[in-house]
């Protein structure tokens, strides 16, 4: 079913938040001119954050979208993957793009 749904979607456009770009057609990410290598899960998480840039996404929203099921207990897998993305996207940058909204979730975008 998912494969069929992917086929009927219009051709993807490049997503951009500040100097961070993500091309869904090639699955390439860049911050400025620097390429960013992403695992499949990191890509899915970053794409979801970018498609909802500026919006606070709750932990449960992210877990349901990225891992496609509701975590009933320990959800620190999300914290681990957010940490991976921060190292790849925000390291050595003046302006971090991934923000933790304490007690709620995460937001992608300039402060």
* Nearest-integer average pLDDT: 88
Oligomer: single chain
Q: How many strands in all?
A: 7
Largest sheet: 4 strands, antiparallel
**Helix/strand/pairing category:** alpha+beta
Report Rg.
14 Å
Contiguous helical run count: 4
Global shape:
globular
Give the neighbour order of strands across the main sheet. 1-2-3-4
Can you give a write-up of this model?
The chain has about 110 residues and is of the alpha+beta class. About 35% of the residues lie in helices and about 20% in strands. It has four helices and seven strands; from the N terminus they run αββββαβααββ. A four-stranded antiparallel sheet has the order 1-2-3-4, covered by helices on one side. Strands 5-7-6 form a three-stranded antiparallel sheet. Helix 2 (about 40-50) crosses helix 4. The protein starts with a helix and ends with a strand. The model has no long low-confidence stretch (mean pLDDT about 90).
């Amino acid at each position: 079913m998912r494969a069929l749904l992917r086929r009927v979607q219009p051709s993807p456009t490049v997503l951009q938040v500040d100097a961070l770009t993500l091309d869904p057609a090639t699955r390439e990410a860049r911050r400025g001119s620097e390429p960013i290598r992403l695992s499949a899960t990191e890509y899915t998480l970053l794409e979801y954050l970018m498609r909802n840039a500026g919006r606070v996404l709750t932990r449960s929203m992210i877990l349901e979208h990225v891992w496609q099921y509701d975590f009933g207990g320990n959800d620190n897998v999300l914290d681990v993957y957010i940490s991976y993305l921060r190292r790849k996207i925000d390291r050595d940058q003046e302006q971090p793009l991934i923000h933790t909204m304490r007690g709620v979730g995460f937001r992608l975008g300039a402060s």
